[in-house]
Write a structure and sequence with these properties.
globular, Arc Repressor Mutant, subunit A, mainly alpha, 7 strands, three-stranded antiparallel beta sheet, single chain
């Protein structure tokens, strides 16, 4: 992995991607730094607090949104662990080169040899093809394969059809099935929360019939 070629190429990609904001870039550079420290393995584990500190992101909600978007836009592959004792897993895509970066043995023997590099070859602009359903029938069939009712699939289709198949009204959806899977997970979580809330309410019920003849 060539350190300089990778950064030159990825920054050129950043300039052409209007979806990115400074927080995305800061987060990507924090992940790149951890990748660099670990000597560019195919995959590595991260600690959320460490990444947030490196990227100067103070909000957990912003962190989770940006890292999911970077994964969705194929800058990285993010695999959350949902386990407090095990970090989430990251795979970094290589930009510009597949050659391994040479190591400088000066002083500690772990520093990167940063060779000046000018890239005169402009990378081809990445064209992301949108994968959207043709009709609501396609969505309903997909929900049925996941053992979800047709009504839920129709609700999903109508919702995103009405907002132009965008996330937050800005980010264009490129893979509707991935968004549908997230929709089903959220719906399942809401159903579980409603069930728990209903059980708590039942436990708080008290009888209105009181016997005042009993001693205190």
């Amino acid at each position: 992995m060539n350190y300089i070629k990778h950064l030159n190429s990825v920054f050129q990609t950043f300039t052409k991607d209007s979806r990115l904001n400074p927080t995305h870039i800061s987060l990507y550079m924090a992940l790149f730094q951890i990748w660099n420290i670990n000597r560019f393995p195919p995959m590595f584990f991260i600690n959320r607090e460490e990444v947030m500190q490196l990227s100067k992101i103070g909000s957990k909600a912003t962190y989770h949104r940006c890292i999911k978007e970077l994964s969705y836009w194929e800058y990285v592959i993010y695999t959350p662990s949902h386990n407090p004792y095990k970090g989430s897993q990251i795979k970094m895509f290589t930009f510009g080169t597949t050659n391994k970066q040479e190591v400088n043995d000066h002083e500690t023997g772990t520093k990167q040899a940063l060779i000046p590099y000018i890239n005169n070859n402009k990378p081809k602009e990445t064209i992301i093809k949108r994968k959207l359903p043709k009709t609501e029938i396609e969505v309903i069939k997909f929900f049925k394969t996941k053992k979800w009712p047709a009504l839920e699939g129709l609700k999903f289709f109508n919702h995103y059809q009405s907002i132009g198949w965008k996330i937050g009204g800005k980010v264009k959806i490129t893979d509707w099935q991935a968004i549908a899977n997230s929709w089903m997970l959220k719906s399942k979580r809401l159903q579980t929360d409603k069930t728990l809330l209903s059980q708590k309410r039942d436990n708080l019920k008290t009888t209105t019939i009181k016997n005042y003849d009993e001693p205190l």
